[in-house]
Write a structure and sequence with these properties.
This protein is an alpha+beta fold. Helices cover 39% and strands 21% of the residues. The protein folds into 2 domains: 175 residues, no CATH class; 144 residues, 2-Layer Sandwich (Nucleotidyltransferase, domain 5), CATH 3.30.420. Bound molecules: zinc ion. Zinc ion (ZN) binds next to loops.
């Protein structure tokens, strides 16, 4: 998520929020062809820049990524697509390297993109000239450079005072086009909420339950999500038995992809609702800091395949921030699972992977994940108040 707001003059008491609208695009055959070309050009450029970077690094030991302009003579087809999309690809690769050089343990080295396992997508920034912006929305379309007005269906309308920053066009595996439009929206700064032990909650990621809270509650993936996943597994088994390339096989692949998309949508819905519920019910949320892993997968250009917990945490952060509530991170190496939340004794191992264990020192019985959530909350709050104190005395 972008944290930049340098070109926005803010009035006193105002803050910047980012909002994304996702709209379905209905491009004409020519526009669809242009999008396909743009996806291909972005992938081509990424791979070219990456291989040149690698060669240059090997030869000279210095890091350097040539700009998109350098490739246009040798690959004139790059001139046919939106130059902004190419510039974004350069920025993305540069960012992936910045993260990798800064922290090679947490971030993967950027890798080459292959058509079959990278997303069909491109991003373009909006530029406002005297003649007007390069990207804007109309009543029933999105105007883009090169493509012109692409018909679109809006579920929500942008407000007049929002500033369109950039668009990301993607094509799903089932052949549908979507556009995520990012807006910068000035809003009134919310009053800061000071949490107490009673109004704060600690959450621990859980494989089985999505999360476990310090008060013993658990989310549990909803029934229908599990049902869809079972269906998905069944289709997968059918595919394994089928003759590759046969008519039935292709039909089942299509079903499989549709269901896959459906699950992704269901999951996103679930994540947003759950985050909304928690952000409204509590004044502060403590979680373990694990953002590095997810970021690294994203930055390396790989596919992000996860339970949605990273998305959940990001949703929570945004929703809390908007209400002036703290989102508190606990060091991801903190031994939350093997410390007894009752007496603070740290075990060598908290009964391995067992669901429950008894503290040998004080005798307290612990449910593994709830105990961890209790520690996350206690340590998170302690750190939060410590920081507050330091700020007050400074
Ligand atoms: Zn104990």
């Amino acid at each position: 998520m972008p944290g930049k707001s340098k070109n926005l003059c803010l009035q006193e008491g105002m803050a910047v929020q980012y909002t994304t609208l996702k709209v379905r695009l209905y491009p004409s055959p020519e526009q669809a062809e242009l999008f396909e070309k743009t996806f291909g050009c972005c992938r081509y450029l990424w791979n070219q820049m990456l291989s040149d970077q690698e060669r240059f690094y090997e030869e000279t030991g210095t890091h350097f990524i040539p700009t998109p302009a350098k490739y246009k003579t040798g690959a004139p087809f790059l001139k046919e697509v939106d130059n902004q999309a190419l510039i974004q690809e350069h920025n993305r690769l540069a960012q992936a390297f910045r993260l990798f050089f800064k922290n090679p343990d947490a971030f993967r080295h950027p890798k080459f993109k292959r058509k079959k396992d990278s997303r069909d997508s491109f991003t373009a920034c909006n530029h406002v000239f005297e003649s007007g912006p390069t990207i804007y929305t109309t009543k029933d379309g999105v105007r883009m450079t090169k493509a012109g007005i692409v018909p679109a269906k809006f579920h929500r309308r942008p407000q007049a005072w929002w500033k369109l920053k950039r668009v990301t066009v993607t094509k799903t595996r089932t052949g549908n086009f979507y556009c995520c439009i990012l807006y910068e929206c000035p809003v009134k700064k919310p009053e800061s909420v000071i949490p107490t032990e009673k109004t704060a909650i600690g959450l621990k990621y859980s494989m089985a339950h999505f999360y476990a809270a310090d008060n013993g509650s658990m989310a549990g993936a909803p029934h229908w999500l599990r049902q869809s996943q079972e269906k998905l597994a069944k289709l997968q088994r059918q595919l394994n038995r089928m003759q590759r390339g046969s008519k039935n096989y292709r039909e089942t692949v299509r079903k499989y992809r549709l269901l896959h998309e459906h699950i992704a949508n269901q999951r996103r819905d679930f994540v947003h609702k759950e985050a909304r519920r928690i952000a409204n019910a509590w004044d502060a949320v403590c979680v373990r800091d694990g953002s590095l892993e997810e970021l690294s997968r994203y930055a390396a250009g790989g596919n992000l395949r996860d339970s949605g917990y990273g998305m959940f945490r990001e949703c929570l952060r945004v929703k809390l921030e908007r209400q002036g509530k703290p989102f508190i991170l606990v060091d991801r190496y903190a031994p939350v699972t093997r410390t007894c939340s009752a007496c603070g004794t740290e075990q060598e191992a908290a009964g391995g992977r067992k669901d429950s264990w008894r503290c040998p020192k004080c005798g307290a019985m612990h449910q593994r994940e709830i105990n961890a959530a209790k520690n996350i909350k206690a340590w998170g709050l302690a750190r939060y108040f410590q920081l507050q104190e330091r700020r007050d005395s400074a």
